Every structure is written in C-alpha cells, then in structure tokens.
What does this fold into?
Amino acid sequence: MDESVGHHCGVFGVYNVPDAASKTYLGLFAQQHRGQESAGIVVSDGKKVEFKKGMGLVTEVFADKAALTAMHGHIAVGHVRYSTTGASRTQNIQPLLVEYARGSLAVAHNGNLVNAKRLRDELEANGSIFQTTTDSEVLLHLMASPKNAEREDQLAHCLRQMKGAYSLVIMTRTQLIGARDPQGFRPLILGRLINEPDLGHISEGFVLCSESCALDQIGAEFAREIEPGEIVTIDSEGIRSSRIVPVEDVKPSHCIFEHVYFARPDSRIFNDDVHAVRMKLGATLAREHPVEADIVFAVPDSGNAGAIGYSRESGIPLDMGFIRNHYVGRSFIKPNQNERESVVAMKFNVVRSAVRGKRVIVVEDSLVRGTTFKHQARILRNAGAKEVHLRITCPPTRNACYYGIDFPRKEDLIAERMKTTDAIAKWLGVDSLGYISLEGLLAAVSQPASHYCTACWSGKYPVAPEDAMDKLALESGEMPKTSGA
Ligand code: SF4
It folds into this structure.
C-alpha cells in the first residue's frame, strides 16, 4: 500500500468488566492499525465519569500505567483515530464526551457521514455551538436538541437523520450502546467476556469493537456482528436489540476494502476471516493473471496472504523478497512526495540473494499513487531481479471514498492519471501488471456481491454524498485550543 491512504478509526467498549479502562487500553492497542494519530478512553463506575485522551499511539497516550489503573469503573469506551474528517488536533480526539440534560454521553465513531455539513449548518442555525471539526459531533447535538432529547426512541431518531458510515460505541453513566448504520459500511463486533471469579461470583461482561482481533487480546469470545441498522443497548437489565430502520429497509454495503487492506488478518469481519479472503484473492489473481516466474513474494504485510494464495494456486515457490523495517515510526512519515520516497526506502529493503537473477512475481494489496511501488520496482531491479511482475489484489482505484477512507485526490490516483494497465506498468518499471477483476474480488467473500460497497473501483456509491467531504471540510477558522486531559 502506498503511504497515501489513511486508515480510519477503531472503536472499543466494555460493560461489566472490573478493570474496564485497562481492558479498553488492550482493545485499542490491538486495533492500533486503524488509527495512529490519537487515542482516548472514557470510563464510568455508574456514578462518576473520567477520561484521558491525547495525540499519539495508545502506548504513548497511556504511557503512565498508574494513571490508567487509577481510572476506576466497569464501563468504558475507547477510540483510536485517523482524521478522515476534522484536522488532527486535540479538540477532535475521541471519544467525544459531553454533559447534557440527560447526563453524560461519550461517543466513539468509525466511518464518515455524507450529510454532516448540512446537519451541522442546521444545528448551528438553531443555536448549537460546536467544539470540534469532526462529523461525529453532530450526533451529540442531535441528541441534546430539545425536540429529540425527550423522545423514547431518541438515539434511533437521531441516527435516522445521519447518512453515511457510522459504527458507534456510545457510553452513558450506566449503559454501553453499539449502533451501526443501515449499510453496515464499517464492522462492529459484539463479544462476551467471562470475568474472573471474584468473591465466588462469576459474571459476564460484554465487549463492542471494530475488529475481532481486539476480543482475542482481552480473552473475550466472539458473539456476533452488530447488524446493519441495529442498536444494541447493554445495562444492568442485560442486552437488548432495537432498530434504526426496519430489517427490510437494510441494504448492506460492507466496505470490501476492509478485507483487501485495512483489517488485521487475524480478524473476522462481515462473516469472513480476513486472512482466508486474502488467500483467495491471491489464488484468483494467479488464475486471472498467470505468468511464468521463479518466485512469488509479497509487499509486506498486507500482501502476505495474497502471495501465499498466488503461490499455492500457481505452484510457483513462495519466497521473501522484501524485508520491512517495523521500527520506522510515525515521526518519519512526512507528507510531501520527496520525503515519502525516503520513508519507503527506510521501510523496505530487498533480500538480494532471493531475487538475484530471478523472474519475480510481487503481490501487493492495492496501487493508489503508485510511487511506493515505483521505488520498490527500482530496488528489485538494482538487486538483480531479471523480470518483475506485479499483481494487485484489488481492481484499479479510480474514485474517492466518502465513507471513512482517506484516498488521495482523484487526479493523484495512478489509475486515473495513466488510464491503461500497460501505461501504468511502463511508468512503474515492471514487466507486467495484473489487477484482480471486480468479479474475482467479490467471489472471494461469502455474502452476495450486492452486499458490498465497491465505489472506489466501480464508482457506484451506495449512499450519495451530499457534499464532497474531505477531512478538512468542516474546518472553519481557528478552533479554541484545549489540551487533552
Ligand atoms: Fe470501502 Fe471503497 Fe466503499 Fe470506501 S468506496 S467504503 S474504501 S469499498
């Protein structure tokens, strides 16, 4: 993957777990790949709500373990963030926490709304004062609005006004709530956790998270996915399900790019194991784009399973052509093009003995700008590779995503700039280039093709964007400065 695509966010929450803040820390740590700019945890003991949030990785924000264990409570919600809307600033760190007429409300949101600007304009016209530039804050103001606050279906009513992608974990002083948009763009998982016997009493806790790898991290069991258009409420009376929209109005549009790139391979999302899907993508690529070669290897890490699948299907031996340096930290991730190239050089090196004199097939998850692989093709040639054949486990990326993935501008996408596969291959400096077909991609997952969003390739948007939201679309002048507590 080019360094040009932003992960979105990861959400996590627990109910009836004695060390809720520490469990949330671990759950966020497991989902760190979904957002590295900021992290936060809000915890409740049923009476008092405490929070800590800050810029940086989970381990940086919660470096002081004593402060974490001092956050008492059995309910917690947490968030790791990449800024798909709202600039990277402390006000925008989630969970967002407010006190309003009905008490405390903490919200952690994954996904992007496509009507946030209009909702925000309407709310501001009615007197709302926004504290952040995130689309997520719209929900807080809808909930606090007098005409919504007293409704019995308050949350469902507010969510029906929000269009686009939202997988939400919400906490009140006494409840944990999960909610997922009617398209189910982003994953949201329910887990169960058996608490250690305490004074002879065994109790059951509940977990909500973006990916099932977070359940494994805390020893919880996978229960099920929150359904598209469903709200799950967990409190002292147990767990209850209600609907944002009726089941018959649900049109699932799961983001299949989660399977291609974003989700961790040890996760299960949208009813499929991510690793197994990626292996199938590799096998399909081998059938769709065969080529004679000596070895197959991946651009690590997200190409790994695809390379295994390609190798098994084609019979061409699997090898390790690239080594990734995992110690290149965020401080090296520079935004401009020249510096991005130097980061790539620091991040990947070639195993010369593996590629020298060989015809190599390289499996990569996606090509966005193309600049990363152009560099990689060059260092493979310099290391003595005789032929370089690139295989991509998703179709050519041509369109923006409005549902929470931060692609570069359309004019920067290589598939838009070059138009033909041959032209792209020439520019990259490879002997051949093969993208998986959209049909091949959709055949690797278990649900019907109509249940997935494919807009970044097909241009067919399941929910029409009201405005071309980019991550700074809600920025309007200087926001007051606060420090993360
Ligand atoms: Fe996922 Fe692409 Fe759809 Fe965005 S446009 S939700 S990245 S499939």
